[in-house]
Records
---
Amino acid sequence: PQGSEEAKTFVHAFLKRSMPKMKGEAIQEMLTRKAVVLEHYHKKKTKQKRKKTKGFTAKQRRELRLFEIEPEQQRYAIFLPLHELWKQYIRDLCHGLKPDAQPHMIQSKLLKADLHGAIVTVTKSKCPSYVGITGIILQEFKHVFKIITKEDKLKVVPKLNNVFSLELDGFISYIYGSKFLLRASERSAKKFKLKGTIDL
């Protein structure tokens, strides 16, 4: 056990180290009291900002050719399983395309559905060369559809001024491309008007 003088020296040194902002006289005055309240000085921790991971810019995506389909992959037969998956997806989405299903309900769901894998036909167009093009939609962008035909040709068909039709289980739906100028992700959240002017 320490002696009384050693104990006083230890306590004085401990208080001085614990309370660096307090003068020696003030510490000595505190020692005459019955209780001593130690102050705690904590260092402020600097918060490290998390770096947000940025995706590729549109220019970088073009340079890397992320959305381009290689010529050897441009074959209609390769994407037929995708079409079968799309048909099952639409049947599940519309709870089965039954004969007594209300057309406007199915139409409203198709407007927001993902069309990758759907077989579409250009039925009307201001450009006659587009009429009759039939194939599976491989990619949908804001302004165009990329369609692979049975002849294994990749066609880029603009939505503007074109009317597309798609058929599933006897139900035929028409897509007016001019009213469809949205990305697939934006279209799923958009509210479409049931009535409106229909034109090319």
Note: The helical segments are 4-18, 24-31, 58-64, 80-93, 103-112, 184-187.
---
Amino acid sequence: EYEIVLSGVSDTSLEKNISLASPTKVELTCKLDENSNLKNPQVTWKRGSETISHTSKTQNSWTIQLTISESSQLGSYSCILKGEKEVSATFHLHVPKIEGKEKRIITYEGDIAVMVCKTEYNPKAWTWYMTNGTELVPINTFLHTDKFQIQRHSDSENRLKILKLTKEDHGVYWCEAVFELGSSKGSFELKVLSITAPLKPFIAVVAEVAILVTTIVLYELYSKKNRKGGEREFDQIEQL
């Protein structure tokens, strides 16, 4: 049973996320705080924009009972309480999400990249994809044993290891956790840098220093030449 308590004072809209991995029965309850000044409200339940009826009611709470047997029954269920003011509560029913999705990984040629996907519940299966244009292509480790390794760290955690990185490995990779009620995906953007990339700032500094030193040396040579020329001219004048 999942419950949201509305005070009707400071909160006008509250939300709760509910993860469901397999078919189950769910009770959703909207409860009005006993100290609320919202008296005898008119209550409406909705699934998305469709109005549905509540299955039970007490003095300050309203409940719907759901049997979630397929993915089409997931979504948002809301109760709206109308009185002197309007307050609402929304329950978001969804399959377990991938933790830490949409990560960016930066590494170098010749290194190894490791991508980790975790979920709150144990999925039935895991699948990894690489992006080819706009399509997702399943990664087959049997065909690419020298490039990809998929490791099951635990029932709720799966890892993709990419070996001997090259610039061609740059791109977006996806993991998919499959549950009885649907699936969730997480993405990783892999950026592979040249092995000389970390040296570029150092090379730039060295080049600037070299230019500065060369400029100073040329200036010193030019100044010394002018001083010698001036001394010779002074000696000639003394002789005259």
Note: The chain has a mean pLDDT of 84.
---
Amino acid sequence: TGVIRYVVLLITLLGTWFLMQTYFDQRWIAISLRSWLGEALLPQHKCGNQKSCPQDYFAFKIISGAANVVGPYICFDGIVLMSSVKNNIGRGLNIALVNGELVPAKSLFLFLMLFSSDINKLDTFLAEIKHGTVVLAASYDDAATKMNDKVRAHFVELGSRHVNNLGFRDNWVFLGAKGLKNKSPFEQHIKNDKETNKYDGWPELLEMEGCVPRKMD
């Protein structure tokens, strides 16, 4: 039985690899594999970043989803918080919270909530974030369709510049903090535009990495 399971797993992986080679570019494949395998493929710098961070900073990397095929990836201080291999991502808006001892408090999948039409849960979730908490967010497929003004206002409070412009199937990655006095420098946004989309119906994925101070002001 064990041998059969390994054979089935190998066939599944090979089949997935073949499909991705056939339909998607090499950059997408590399990011997808890194997301599936978690920390196993990370090089010497935390989160697989190109450079190490100073002593008083945390390394982070956020990768948005690619269309509705490859899920997002969130890493903080060398710890993979959300990824396909952890099976804790979903279509919509993926959020990880980091506070105190670097433990992700919750994850929330906006897309799954939309089917129950309960956007108020997201509003409550964001309102209850404690002062000093670092918030990391990545879109996957569509994160904005039913975002209301109250939800967008929470992200503005967390330091977002672009959340009010977030539209259907846009890609968005963001790192902010509760109690941030200024706008966060850690944010990327790309519009869904059929004239410029890299993939059919979706824009190119976003990948953002950097060093965030241990205390964000």
Note: The CA atoms of residues 114 and 146 lie 7 Å apart.
---
Amino acid sequence: QSYCHRLQHDMYFLTSTSRLNEQVVDKIVLQLNRVYPQILTNEEAEKFRNPRASLHTRLSDLLKHLQKKGDRHCQEFYRALQINAEQLFNDLPSRKILKTPDPTEIDTDKEQYMLNDRGPVFFLACFSVAAGLALFWYCCNSETRVIGRARRILGFSPIIIGRHVRNICMLYLEDISRN
């Protein structure tokens, strides 16, 4: 993505109220005026530092002017912004898009907190209810084919449930299959 497109994408964010104060904008303009290669001429720098015009107007005009000049000028603006207002530079919408490889990707840090806010006890309780309902469904169904499946599942589960519980369940299933 070119710096001009990034600047167009960030323009609303930068010109919104109280993002950049007058001192920071003046520092950026002076840096663009004094840096090699000179991005802004002396007349342009005075125009964008004019205290008679509102800060919003000056900043909007500066950004539009840089976009017309080309990609190199926009890149120098980003460099000046990074030097003079690093926190704002890091919060730019275009920077957040560049940090994530896929813009549709879920922010895993936030998602991790959303999934884990209930703790392991909640997970075990839900899992136990689901396993109990599945066992109940297999055991209480009138079809003998389902009872055979339940017998196979319970026959291979001495690790999951204790041997005594497994033996009781197996006896229960045998009684049901005889009836």
Note: Residues 3-97 form a domain with the Death Domain, Fas fold (CATH 1.10.533.10).
